Amino acid sequence: MNPVTPVAATTDPAVPKGCTNLHLRQLMRRVSQHYDLEMARMGLKTTQYSLLSYVVKLGPIRPGDLAHAMMMEPSTLTRNLKPLITAGWAALEAGSDGRSRLVVATEEGRAKRTEAQRRWKVAQESLNQTLGVQRVAALHTLIHESLELLSPDETGVDHD
Fold it and tell me: How many domains does the chain fold into?
């Protein structure tokens, strides 16, 4: 006798197949590689470009506030800031009191970001061409909607 296979699991295209986390990680690796190639021409990693962009846009800013804005742990921020500070693209300055610090972009950092923005745009336009503008726009919509659904509400309770 043949085993019975649930019809929805094999024929319904609306039923997700496989692990969503795995699929997203695979896509992220490919997309990251695409951007990494362009940023490498500038001597930057994509994570460094992102951090530098936040510092330029939000700075001077307290490290804790920057970590919160970037949705990362303060220890991760500290570790990621070190290469930017070493390169002279960012600096830690004294805050309003002797105990506080502010992260700021240096003039060299602002120039580096402006230059890197051009490479980032090349990477984005290339991705748009490869995937198609409509697919990229649909992907952005799906990502934003998913992030909203997965974000905790004001009470700190997840939406599940």
Answer: 1
